[in-house]
Amino acid sequence: MFKLALIQMRVTGGAREENVARAERFIATAAAAGAQVVLLPETLNLGWTHRSAVSEAEEIPGGESCRRLRAAAQAHGVYVCAGLVERSGARCFNAAVLFDPQGELLLHHRKINELDIAHYLYSTGDRLGVVRTPLGTFGVMICADAFASGQVVSRTLGLMGAEVILSPCAWAMPADHDNTREPYGWLWLENYGPVARDFKLWIAGCSNVGWITDGPWAGRKCIGCSLVMGPDGQPALRGPYGVEAETMLLVDVAPGRSQAPGAS
């Protein structure tokens, strides 16, 4: 069993220094609270679909944001999973990394099931992997990867042996969304639950909070509601809703599963 921290932090579009510094502070706080794994949101350095990606996206693992998150993992002795905007040659990717407590890059994922409205900015991902660690076998996906047709991304990670899937996210709603009338989260419950139950694994989705100020969804709000689904297909943790609902959430995760469906 290990303690997982979900960092439901504010992400400000285009404000790389501010965002990365906030992530560093939260990593330190999580480690001090006993977390062994820290999960941060999607595109935390620049914000989802913010036009700054064109000029400010950085290489992985050589970019400044990546180096600083790696250093934070090493300094505090924790695993760190985070979403970053990546530059690779002439292309940008909506990417995620997983560092171990020694600062080694274990996984580098690129979002596969990006929303159509973001294809003008991010190229389609080209990789999927898992990694075995002393805490369990981890896989990484990003946000909408979870509802790819047939849940193919998360189910493939399950078939590859993932016991815990970490998913940086940016869950957004229209500015006038009323959560009391239309409670947020059914999409993730419907897509995390069956996969978690079928493969007896954990899925953790961590969303940012704050306003989207640029791109096709400018004016929408990211609202948190971060979610951890247990291997029984039921929520083990649900974060608070709101554009100002910045918080750290802690949950105990116990990897370990029976054979995957169809295995012999």
Explain the overall architecture.
Helix 1 (16-32) packs parallel to helix 3 (64-76). The chain is built from 5 helices and 15 strands. The mean pLDDT is 96. It has a single domain, classed as 4-Layer Sandwich (Nitrilase/N-carbamoyl-D-aminoacid amidohydrolase). The chain has a 6-stranded mixed beta sheet. It has a 6-stranded mixed beta sheet with strand order 6-7-8-10-13-14, covered by helices on one side. A 3-stranded antiparallel beta sheet has the order 9-12-11, with no helix packed on it. It is of the alpha/beta class and 264 residues long.
Number of helices: 5
CATH class: Alpha Beta
User: Oligomerization state of this entry?
Assistant: single chain
State the share of residues found in helices, binned by percent. Answer: 10-25%
Taken in chain order, the helices and strands follow as EHEHHEEEEEHEEHEEEEEE
Question: Under CATH, the topology is which?
Answer: Nitrilase/N-carbamoyl-D-aminoacid amidohydrolase
Give the class from helix and strand content and strand pairing. alpha/beta
